[in-house]
Amino acid sequence: MTLDRIWSYAPDSGHVEGQELTGCTVAATDGVIGHVDRQADHFGMRHLVVDTGVWVFGRSVLVPVGVVTGIDAEGRRITLACTRAEVKAAPRFRTDSETLDRAYLTSVGDYYQRLPPRERTPT
């Protein structure tokens, strides 16, 4: 996956332009990680901010949309091409201002870009 693709939904992800994903459950390959708190597109770097609830001690994580493998709009569920541990190990998301920080977003994109490829699984 090229770096620019990490910030774009895959054509077979089920994403529809303008689709509201806030509140959707987010699942990694090995279990649920939380729900979408908000979605953003700064500098052409589309991403989801996912509230992990108590799973990662109440913190949020930033996930580039390029790791989304499936969107089930009816079931309000999003699946990712990474594990819970990989999401947890991503560069730490601390404040909303980081979604406007190109350097931070680049570090997140670089991290997810280096993850081993996985087969895409439908939701």
UniProtKB/TrEMBL annotation:
GO biological process, one term: photosynthesis, light reaction
SUPFAM superfamilies according to UniProt: PRC-barrel domain
The organism's place on the tree of life at top rank: Bacteria
InterPro entries in the cross-refs: Bac_photo_RC_H_C, PRC_barrel-like_sf
Residue stretches spanning the membrane: none
GO CC entries: plasma membrane light-harvesting complex
Name of the protein this chain belongs to: PRC-barrel domain containing protein
